[in-house]
What does this fold into?
Amino acid sequence: LQVQRGSQARVAELCALRGLFSAPLGLSSLQAAHVKALSRVLFLTPRLPAPLLRHRLRSHVLEIRQLDRALARLGPSELSDEELRAACYLRGLNSTHLSAGECRAWLERWLGLSCRLQ
It folds into this structure.
């Protein structure tokens, strides 16, 4: 309900919901239309058959997770504004209308969640 009002959930709240995304909402269970929509959100071409899109999404997610771990060690504060916006873009956030501070805060929350997930 808070998210529908524009509020951002805390990392602990998101982790509490993790189990909901395993079976019915897991990548292998999503319908082709949902896989295509998710591909668009992550700026991947959606014009491929669903099995190939799933493979590309898995590869993309694994790459982001590896980058997240490296970035968590480095720290988002070490990124230039351009690198910061690129990191947000890669993770599906359009940072065009956000300040560098807002991007950094979003990326820190993202890393907090990403590094806690298995």
Notes: The chain has a mean pLDDT of 82. Residues 3-115 form one domain.
